Amino acid sequence: MDEVNPTLQPIGHSSQREPGRCAVQTDAAPTPVGPYSQGIAVLGPLIFTAGQVGLDPKTGKLTGEDIVSQTRQALLNLQAVLAAGGTNLSNVVKTTVFLADMKDFAAMNEVYQEFFSTDPAPARSCVQVARLPLDALVEIEAVAWYP
What we know:
20% helix; alpha+beta; disordered N terminus; five-stranded mixed β-sheet; globular; 147 residues; CATH 3.30.1330.40
């Protein structure tokens, strides 16, 4: 790969001029250390979701007191929002994960990888925050495109 110019690898489309998403990869930035891409270039309409926590939509309560159950429910909620918007997780180009405690990163990442197993995985940022709504352990937001 070129050190100065990143490469774009079209995903599902033969031309970069058509709506779609392309992986952005360059040796001038670190190789991803997890299930995410350095960047995703998108041509076409987008949907931006609100952050989703691990609330059960039927009970209005957090699904559990552990990071695994809350991450799984947050991603199921995200999946539902995307479906209502006419797209799905395979079209997500960027996520932001907010953790109450960075010590939960590995466990969150295990569940996250179950939901984002496409290649390339979405670009992702993950930060620790002081507090989340309802004292949730994790919140996840996404940007997806319409194929």
